[in-house]
What does this fold into?
Amino acid sequence: MAKALTIREVPCNGCTLCCQGDAIRLEEEDRALDYKTETHPYIPGALMIAHKPNGECFYLNEQGCSIHSWAPSLCRSADCRSLAIKLNYDAARSLHMMGRLDFRVWLQGRRLIEAMAAHGGKDNQ
Ligand code: SF4
Ligand code: SF4
It folds into this structure.
């Protein structure tokens, strides 16, 4: 069983865009045997979390992440707001066109940043 990691404070509020069609690479600290995996499409030799036929993460269900307490480290550090800060619109669109980024995730990051700004820098939860 993978060790439990600190849960990040992203106000996802039921959003699961990060769990749809993404390539969640396993990092050194993740124990591959703890997860159902597939070969990573872009990184030779790397593994990623397996997908369902519809492209969703294997571990996503109606309630959200079914392995929340031991989700891989990349899931634990995922924050669409960082992505929206790091990439401008054109860069995000370009990565989307290459199949390297789901533009909806970037857009959600922008929405959260705008919502935080409208609430004086605090998450709107
Ligand atoms: S896109 Fe943002 S709000 Fe949605 S699941 Fe990912 S981190 Fe959470
Ligand atoms: S492991 Fe959980 S948080 Fe990570 S992509 Fe799958 S459902 Fe989402």
Observations:
- The pocket of iron/sulfur cluster (ligand 1) is lined by residues 10, 12, 15-18, 78-80, 105, 108 (CB under 6 Å).
